[in-house]
Amino acid sequence: MNTTSTSLLERLRHPAPADTDWRRLHDLYRPLIRAWLTRIPGLTREIDDLTQDVFVVVVRELPEFHRQRHGSFRAWLRQVTVNRVRAWRRTYRSVAPDDFRGADGYLSQLEDPASPLAHQWDREHDRHVFDRLLAAVRPDFTPPTWEAFRLFALGEGTATEVAEQTGLSVNAVIVAKSRVLKRLREEAADLID
């Protein structure tokens, strides 16, 4: 891993971050945030606006964010999301109070870092980021290399079984796994958490 490179999060904390870095953060996290907002009782047409509201807060407050431990950014993002929904609900509760039945309990669970719902957020966050990493590095490899990696590294067979299945040598399967994992580590080092 290149220790001199700064992560996306660190670059975004600087006074004039590049638009490409903000776009990367937005593209990475928008689908995850939007998916979670669709689960909150009472939210329908406002989901896109709320997703954008979350990013407005992220842009405004990220320079003050300090990573304190592994997972602290995803926990902070979860809290920003909960807070934006609560702020929106306070504003619009008088318009349609019945639309929000069940939302308070849901938001309280999502806010509590020890709750099953917060743990689900963490798992889905990690899976989402991992899937995005896989998609980002896949074009860097030939189909046989990628298939050997997928089968071997993701646990669908031993090196010998994957070699038989793909027509590659056992050594080629091991090298494929190593090369893809190295590239994934490089890509992950640029991300956030």
Protein architecture, described:
With 193 residues, this protein is an all-alpha fold. The chain folds into two domains: 8-140, no CATH class; 141-193, Arc Repressor Mutant, subunit A, CATH 1.10.10. The protein is built from nine helices and no strands. The protein has helices at residues 8-13, 19-37, 47-61, 72-92, 103-111, 116-137, 143-153, 159-166, 170-189. It is elongated, with a radius of gyration of 20 Å.
Low-confidence parts, pLDDT < 50 over ≥5 residues?
A: 1-5
Helix content: 55-70%
Count of individual beta strands: 0
Give the helices and strands as they follow along the chain: HHHHHHHHH
Class per helix and strand makeup? mainly alpha
Q: How many separate domains make up the residues?
A: 2
**Assembly type of the shown chains?**
single chain
Our count of helices gives 9
> How would you sum up the major sheet?
none
Strand proportion, as a percent range, falls in under 5%
Shape: elongated
State Rg: 20 Å
Q: What is the first-to-last residue Cα distance?
A: 15 Å
What's the average pLDDT?
87
Layout of helices and strands:
Blueprint (H helix, E strand, L loop, with lengths): L7 H6 L5 H19 L9 H15 L10 H21 L10 H9 L4 H22 L5 H11 L5 H8 L3 H20 L4
Helix pairs in contact: 2-3, 2-6, 3-4, 4-5, 5-6, 6-9, 7-8, 7-9, 8-9
